[in-house]
Amino acid sequence: MVHLYFRRLHVWRIASLLGLLTLAACSRHPSPADVPLPNETSPLLGVAELGTGLKTQTLISGLQFQAVETEVVDDDGLRIKQVTFEVVNTSGTDMNSLTLYGVQTAMTVEGTNISNVRNSFGDSLTDTVLIQTMLAAHGRAPDGSIDPDKADLLVVTDADQAYVTTLLDETFEGHNFVVLDKGYAVSNISGQSDRAIPAGETGVVTIATQYPYDAANPASYPDAFLLSFAVVMDTAPTDSESFQLLVSGLGVSAADGATSIETVITNNVQGAFVTVQQ
User: Fold this and answer.
1) Between 20 and 30 A from 234 (CA), which of 91, 175, 185, 186?
2) Which residue, among 230, 231, 101, 97, has the nearest Cα to 156 in the 3D structure?
């Protein structure tokens, strides 16, 4: 089951809240009732676990994450497992620049935001070295190339890591969250470059994870797992952005340099991330 850390929203009815707490009680995590709720004015909406093959829907602070597409792409010894989520703003207020920041928690493998890893037979995998090879990635097309419509990966700068850490410090006293250097940008499903998600409307994000894979030995490799994220609104990462935002929000094109758009995408995946001058 999925553990939810969430903020208090007055529009929620007590019955709905009790239902969520019942779900969380099934997990190995402490009950959300034992965790301080984020301040209602904080841009930190909470910490959520999104399932890749384990759960189809997650609720947090007026947001509904609904998995609408799960894809597996095998490419030259790598497997890319990716899930596209629709993110419905049910809060009654507009949300801008919604960003998912990967966080290490008490339940994740050290240095990662990954927990509850299972193979395709449903068996638990606990090999730390293997799990630490699982890397955040852009979404791929079936032929293994980067899909610009699913290129939502962000590199998180030191400044942004410090900012999100401060938000967590202000919300969860004595927490053990560690903000990692990768995250994902949620975009408006209509393609608005400002990433605004008005009340009642829907955003979209593709969360992809790549790792070594041997099809002859599937029992030794991940198939389903949980990923932990700090969910923050009103943030625009200061330096590195996803390829999708570079193109739609800042007008980057092949004419902007000697490189091609495909090279820009490839560089993003390989770690040579483009720096955005705001």
Assistant:
1) 175
2) 101
Q: How many C-beta atoms lie closer than 10 Å to residue 251's C-beta?
A: 10
DSSP three-state, residue 127: coil
251 SS3 class: coil
* pTM score: 0.73
Reference 205, options 152, 249, 246; nearest CA is 152
Q: How far, in Å, are 136, 186, 194, 222 from residue 79 at the CA level?
A: 12, 23, 32, 9
What confidence tens digit (pLDDT) does each residue in 157-209 have? 888 999 999 999 999 888 889 999 999 999 887 655 668 899 999 999 999 99
- Residue identified by tokens 């990462």 is 237
Per-residue DSSP letter, 248: H
Token duo for residue 135: 């890397």
SS3 (DSSP) at 84:
strand
